[in-house]
Amino acid sequence: MNRQLLLLFTFYVLVSSIQAIDFTYCGQYDEENFPLKVQQIKIIPDPVVTGKPAIFNISAVTDRSVSGGKVMIEVRYFGIRVHSETHDICEEVSCPIEAGNFVLSHAETLPGYTPPGVYTLKMKMIGKNGYQLTCFSFKFKIGFGALVSES
C-alpha cells in the first residue's frame, strides 16, 4: 500500500511540475487575426537540459482545415538569432488538420555546448496558399546539462 502511495505521489509531482508557458502573438497581431489560435504551450522537461531530448507541445485550435504548409522556428538568445529551421507542417502534426483542437509536437535535442539561460522561440505557421495561420513567441529556459558523459 505504501508503495502505491509513493508511486501516485511521484506521478503527481512529475505531472504538476509541467506548467504551461506564457506566450504572445507576434507584433501588432492578436489571436483574432489568425485562423489558428494557440491554447497552451508545454515544454518537457522545463527547463530544457542540453544534450537531452526536449519536447515542445503546442495545443491549438483552428477554424478551418489545413492540408499543408510550413512551420518556421527562430530562436534568439539575448536578442541575437542563434538558430532557425523550417519544417513541413505535416512532419509536425498529422495532416490534414481538421477544424477543431490539435497538438503540434516538436522534439529537439540541443547540443551539449548550448549555453544555459533564457531563450525566445518564435514560431510562424504558413498555409499551403502562403496565408499566415499563426505567429507567436515564448521564452524558455535551458539549464545545465551533464558536464561529464554518463558511463
From TrEMBL:
Residues 1-20 form the signal peptide. This is MD-2-related lipid-recognition domain-containing protein. It comes from the Eukaryota. It holds the Pfam family E1_DerP2_DerF2. Keywords: Signal. The keyword Signal applies. It comes from Citrus sinensis. The keyword Hydrolase does not apply. PANTHER family: LEGUMINOSIN GROUP578 SECRETED PEPTIDE (PTHR11306:SF64), NIEMANN PICK TYPE C2 PROTEIN NPC2-RELATED (PTHR11306). Transmembrane segments: none annotated. One of its GO terms (molecular function) is sterol binding. One of its GO terms (biological process) is sterol transport. Residues 23-140 form the MD-2-related lipid-recognition domain.
